[in-house]
Amino acid sequence: MLLEARKLDKSFNGVYALKGLDLSLKEGEIHGLVGENGAGKSTFIKILGGVYTKNGGELSWNGAPFPADFGPVESRELGINIIFQDHVLIPAFSALENIWLGRPYPRKVGLIQWKEMEKAALEKATELGICLDLKKSISQMTPAQKKCVEILRAMMSDCKLMILDEPTASLSDKETNLLFSIIRNLKAKGTAVLYVTHRLEEIMALTDRVTVLRNGELVSTCDTASTSQKELVRLMSGNEKENGSAVNILASATANTHSGTPALTISHLSSADHIVKDASITVHTGRITGMFGLCGSGRTEFLECIYGIRRISGGTIEISGEKVKKPTPVNSIKKGIAFICEDRRRKAMIPSFTVEENMNLSSIDHYSKKGLFSTTAAVSAAKGMINALKIRCTGTSQPACELSGGNQQKVVFAKALLTSPSIWL
Hints:
The protein has 15 helices and 20 strands. Helix content is 33%, strand content 23%. β18 and β19 form a beta hairpin.
C-alpha cells in the first residue's frame, strides 16, 4: 500500500475537522474523495501536504511511518504533489520558468542551460500527452493550459501521489476530457491520484475507488463500479431531512407570493472595460435562472455589473420595475440583492475577523439604534445562522481563517441571508 492513514485526527480549537479517519491509496490508483462542504477533504489534503500537523493517528508511506517533523519539503521529498483549485503560478513567468520553479537550474560555467531545461520539460510533456507552448507566459494561457503546467511541474520530480483539488472547476467539457486523458496517463505510469471534487459524474467516470467523508469522519470506501451517484449523495448527506435548516431559511428569505413576475430586468448592459457588451436578461421571482458560458465569456463580470462592483457604461437595471440609477453594493443590499462571488477569501470575507463579524458585515446597521451598536443582537443573529447552516466552529468569536473552506463558504451565505435578500446572484 502506498499511503495509509489510520485513526487520523485533526482539530482546531477543540472542533474536529477529521476524526478517526482510515484511508488507503494504492500505486497506480485513481481514488475519489467526496463530501459536502466542511466534510474534512481540504484538511486531509493539507495534512498530506505538510501544511497542517495531525493531532492523532498514524500516517505511513510504503509501510514506513511519516517523518516526525513532517512539512511541505518532506511531503515533496516523499513524492506527494498537490494541485489546488486556485493556480499557484507566477503570471508574468513563462510556462517553462514556472515548471522549473523550486528546482535547481542546470548550469554550465555558471550559465543557466535553458535549452536543456526546455528539452527535459518537452520530453515529460510528450510522455504525458500534454501539448504546450513553453515560452508562452502564464497570463496568456487558458485555465486548462495552466492546469497542465502545474501537472508538468509536479511530474518533473519523482511524483508518486498526485492530489487534484477540484481540478475542473474552471474548465470546459473539452478541457476536462483533456485533463482526464492526462490523469489516465499518470495512472498507467503507476502514479497514484487522489481526485477531490463535488462533481459526482466525474467520480463515476474516472475513479477506481471512492471515499466518502461526512463531518470529518469516514462514511464509506468502495469500488466505484459497485456504487452510484444516488448512493454517494445519500452517503454524503446522511439522507437527513432539512427540518428548518438552510434550505427552508433560503426559501423563506426569497419567498414571493407573485411567483413569475419580473424581479430583475437587465437591458443592453455594457461594462466600462468592454468585457460585458449589450447584455440583456429577465429574472422572475420564484424561479432559478441559469447562466453559463466558457471561461472568459463575461459571466462573472455581468453579475459584478448588476451588483455594482464593476462600473457600467450603458444599459439599464430594473428591480421590481424600478430603475436603478447607479448600482453600488450598498444600494444593491438595500434593494434586496445578495451576491455570492467566486472568490470568497479575497472578496466575500475578512479572514482575520470573527465568524460573527463576517456574518454581520452587510447587515451591521440592523443592530444599531441611535448610534449604539447592540453586540447582543449581532451575536444572537450569528448563533442562529451557525445552528441553521450547521457551521462547524467553536463559536461566534472564532476567527474565520480557522474554519475549513466549506464552513467559510457557509459564513458567506449567512452574511447574505442576514440581509433578507429577495434576489440572489
